[in-house]
Design goal:
With 400 residues, this protein is mostly helical. It has 19 helices and three strands. Helix 5 runs parallel beside helix 7.
């Protein structure tokens, strides 16, 4: 049998090298053999994208794991081990109507539909059940950033932060939920944590498994912001090692923070592997919000990996980025005094972000798949828009 290299296969099928590597790793190419770090592809192998896939029924391998819990838990969809590709079916099977409504609000949010998410969440902002109320506040805060209703977002953010100072008597589990919500809201907006707040780490064991996974993402994100990229990767790896079953939404976010870490360490190959892993989990249910939220921190990885092979999804992700980041900056910039740039295109921002972290024009060009001259133009335009003259001054306007 004749074989070709993975590079030749990618050219033959008119797909990117990362996508060809993903097909090989997933066993989608019969006869493909891994030799060292390279792949040998049968010359006669068809493009996997052209091979029809059989539809299969919703897999339920363990009914005890798949049946949603009957009692209210915070962020019920985020906390659920649904099978990728069957997210909406999972939500519909939740028996408690209030929990199901919150789960639908989550689904709308994580699939980039903030208006629908906010409509449902608003109904629960004053609910008697604290876990539902905190879930609604988190969803409503972040949905309103994208909608442009900044005062509403700030109001519910304050409501979250005041939870532990209210007169409510909280069980240890609900106290852990409150600390989770407060920490999540602060860290993901890159705001300082409220003084006196007990560390989220101290409450991990009291959280449901799926929520615990997302809490580890929040910890990894906070550690990334502190510049401890290796330690952040360690938290991600620990989270996956402790994962008894797969929780798609927390896993997506954990993979994304690993991308951020590896790009900061200038290890794009590892970053790419995590991005593709996140995309594999997200694409079947259209859970694309997290990619838009993290765009600036991903160091051009979306442009390098998703733009060519998933152009329509990439376009939608960039639209999410513009909407979310505009609201995010209106809360973050005044609160911190750190003026993250708001007048650059996403590609200009990605190039400037890499430049601010010490990447050369040649390195940026190789990563983004464009010419060094094009990179130079992006950087020059960014400097002009920010009214600065030197490349080293970009850092003060970039995400940290």
């Amino acid at each position: 049998m004749d074989y070709i290299t993975i590079q030749q296969a990618a050219e033959k099928w008119n797909i990117s090298l990362p996508l060809a590597q993903q097909y090989c790793a997933e066993g989608c190419i019969p006869g493909a053999q891994k030799i060292g770090t390279d792949w040998a592809i049968p010359a006669s192998a068809p493009n996997p994208a052209d091979v029809p896939k059989e539809k299969s029924p919703i897999p339920i391998t363990n009914p005890q794991e798949e049946v949603p819990p009957p009692h209210p838990i915070p962020m019920p969809l985020l906390s659920s081990p649904f099978v990728p590709g069957h997210c909406k079916e999972y939500v519909e099977r939740i028996q408690d109507a209030h929990v199901r409504n919150i789960a639908w609000a989550e689904y709308y949010y994580f699939s980039g539909q903030p208006e629908e998410a906010a409509k449902i969440a608003e109904l629960y902002l004053s609910h008697d059940e604290l876990s539902l109320r905190l879930s609604a506040c988190l969803i409503y805060t972040y949905a309103n950033l994208s909608i442009g209703q900044i005062q509403r977002a700030k109001h519910t953010l304050a409501q979250i932060q005041n939870t532990l100072t209210s007169q409510e008597q909280l069980s240890p589990q609900l106290q852990a939920t409150a600390v989770f919500a407060i920490t999540t809201a602060s860290v993901l907006l890159h705001l300082p944590l409220p003084s006196g707040l007990i560390s989220l780490k101290e409450h991990l064991r009291l959280l449901p498994p799926g929520l615990r996974m997302f809490a580890l993402y929040v910890q990894a994100h906070q550690t990334y912001l502190e510049g401890e990229y290796g330690k952040s990767i360690g938290i991600v790896e620990t989270a996956f090692a402790l994962e008894g079953q797969q929780y798609p939404i927390p896993s997506i976010y954990l993979h994304l923070v690993a991308v951020m870490d590896y790009m900061s360490l200038k290890q794009p190959e590892h970053a790419q592997a995590h991005l593709l892993a996140a995309w594999k989990l997200a694409q079947p249910d259209d859970l694309i919000e997290g990619f838009g939220e993290h765009h600036g921190l991903l160091g051009g990885m979306l442009e390098a990996v998703l733009k060519k092979d998933w152009p329509e999804d990439f376009r939608r992700i960039i639209a999410i980025t513009y909407r979310f980041s505009a609201g995010w900056r209106k809360v973050h910039n005044p609160e911190t005094g750190h003026p993250v740039a708001d007048n650059l295109t996403t590609t200009e921002f990605a190039a400037a972000m890499l430049a601010a972290r010490g990447w050369t024009n040649q390195e940026i060009a190789g990563h983004l798949g464009i010419s060094p001259n094009t990179v130079k133009q992006y950087i020059s335009t960014a400097l002009q828009k920010l009214n600065i003259k030197q490349r080293k001054d970009l850092k003060q306007y970039m995400l940290r």
